[in-house]
Amino acid sequence: MQPKIIHHCFTTFKDTSPLVHNITNDVANNTVANVLLAAGASPAMVHDIKEAPEFVTLAQALSINIGTLTQTTLQSMLATAEVAHSQNIPWILDPVAVGATSFRQQACTELLKFKPDVIRGNASEILALAGMSSRTKGTDSGDSVEGAKEAAQQLTQYAKVVVVTGAIDWVTDGTQGYAVDHGHPMMTQVTAIGCALTALIGGFIGANTSKTEEANSDSLLNAATTALAYYAQAGEIAAQQAKGPGNFYVHFLDALYNLEAQTLIDNLRVTSS
Ligand SMILES: Nc1ncnc2c1ncn2[C@@H]1O[C@H](COP(=O)(O)OP(=O)(O)OP(=O)(O)O)[C@@H](O)[C@H]1O
Ligand SMILES: Cc1ncsc1CCO
Ligand SMILES: [Mg+2]
């Protein structure tokens, strides 16, 4: 992917400051909101079925995360995803721990009917969502990104773009693929860093696609790749300064806030693969 495309997606995101509607999990709510704010977007956590399907029409993107799924929030997720799908509001699904229980698996099957634009999960989640065997450890991954590539490709029958995160992130639309070689293992030591990435990708696809027509896979791929590079570069910067997970989190928010387009481009490690 050409650096100028990444530069364009990044500046469009910053200029747009998209409103991202999140129906995320109880653990992640605060982190997701702080990450979106630090990056320059606007977060809203609106969960109840009485208002979420109405609220989503105000947002540039919807992020749904099943981390602490309940029967009640599932109904709200389905109703809200249906509106997003019918009104061309791009939406992203984070299938947290989908391999752990049949409730999560069935919930994802129902959510996939409303065609998420992007699915983002760790390697175990992507494998499980595709119906392949995985070594999921609750919400943590026990599998490699490389081993989940075929699963990601299969999932492009449900979503235009699929993102697998891990040591080297991989993003595909089923034909093209990009590896994003940034990040730091410390990112796995703070809960909900993956959930917040999902919401940030939501912001990037919301800012970089048109609301008047269905998002095309090139725009989604470019936007998702840019979000991945930005996020994981911020992780690298934060890890250089941090002594452990506690102040890593603080440095991470600061790095997201301060990282500039030119720094992102100068340090870019994104390859076609
Ligand atoms: N070993 C690693 N080295 C470098 N970066 C990593 C590593 N593992 C994960 N990351 C980065 O951490 C971020 C979150 O990805 P991860 O796969 O850990 O999400 P997750 O398992 O869904 O997290 P959570 O469920 O806790 O929110 C991504 O930006 C990814 O690039
Ligand atoms: C720890 C945890 N449990 C359910 S969701 C969540 C946040 C990371 O996905
Ligand atoms: Mg996760």
Automatic annotation (TrEMBL):
Catalytic activity: 5-(2-hydroxyethyl)-4-methylthiazole + ATP = 4-methyl-5-(2-phosphooxyethyl)-thiazole + ADP + H(+)
EC numbers for this chain: 2.7.1.50
SUPFAM superfamilies linked to this entry: Ribokinase-like (SSF53613)
One Pfam family cited in the UniProt record for this chain: HK
Cofactor(s) the record lists: Mg(2+)
Binding-site positions, ATP: R120, T165
Function: Catalyzes the phosphorylation of the hydroxyl group of 4-methyl-5-beta-hydroxyethylthiazole (THZ).
Name recorded for this polypeptide: Hydroxyethylthiazole kinase
GO MF entries: ATP binding; hydroxyethylthiazole kinase activity; magnesium ion binding
UniProt-listed InterPro entries: Hyethyz_kinase, Ribokinase-like
Organism this protein belongs to: Psychrobacter pasteurii
GO biological process: thiamine biosynthetic process; thiamine diphosphate biosynthetic process
Binding annotation for substrate: M45, A192
Protein family per UniProt: Belongs to the Thz kinase family.
Keywords: ATP-binding, Kinase, Magnesium, Metal-binding, Nucleotide-binding, Thiamine biosynthesis, Transferase
TM regions (residue ranges): none
Pathway in which the depicted protein is active: Cofactor biosynthesis; thiamine diphosphate biosynthesis; 4-methyl-5-(2-phosphoethyl)-thiazole from 5-(2-hydroxyethyl)-4-methylthiazole: step 1/1
Record bears the keyword ATP-binding: yes
CDD domains named in the record: THZ_kinase
Highest taxon of the lineage: Bacteria
